[in-house]
Amino acid sequence: MERRRESPAMAREEGRGLDFLESLGPDISATVFSLLDDPADLARATAVSRSWRRFVIANQFSKILCLWVYPEVSNFTRVELSSISSAHRNAGSSAFAGLEKLGRDHRVYMHLSHDLLSPYDPKDCISCCVGASSTDHLPEEAIENTLEHDEEWRPSYWSSGGQKDPAVPECLIYSLQSELCLVDEIRIRPLKGLAPKT
């Protein structure tokens, strides 16, 4: 049985599109994809076909673009998506698990790239106070004082009740406005207290 190899011209004549991934090969295709500098263009590329999507994800172009836009992202130590169940995450072979991880990373880095390139509107990312490891006097020195000032701008602060073991750190816990927040500034103003008279 003789197999006939189709030329690109024959494919075009029959109305089928030409996939440049097959025509150019992986190396030149990777060079072309690496020139995309907008996450929207990369997202459109992944929607062209399954082979394009697999190619983009396998070569981590979304991560490369995100790190190019915002190099500080390289300091992230972990990527999590709460929508992926632990049962689904642990299912299947190690090869499948590797592909799943690449797919999750792709989605995270695409969202990050889009958000980092969007117009920047700085705002407070804290939604509300959750609690403090300890408080000296409630409610006068509660954690809520770290977010608010009264109208007359009188001193408003949180004060620690202290731990018996000085090696135990104090902590303040806040709930954020969204699941992913980019924090570029933290303002801390220590308050020097007076020692009680003995």
UniProtKB/TrEMBL annotation:
Sections of the chain in a coiled coil: none
F-box domain residues: 26-59
Superkingdom, natural source: Eukaryota
Name of the molecule in the record: F-box domain-containing protein
Source organism per UniProt: Aegilops tauschii subsp. strangulata (Goatgrass)
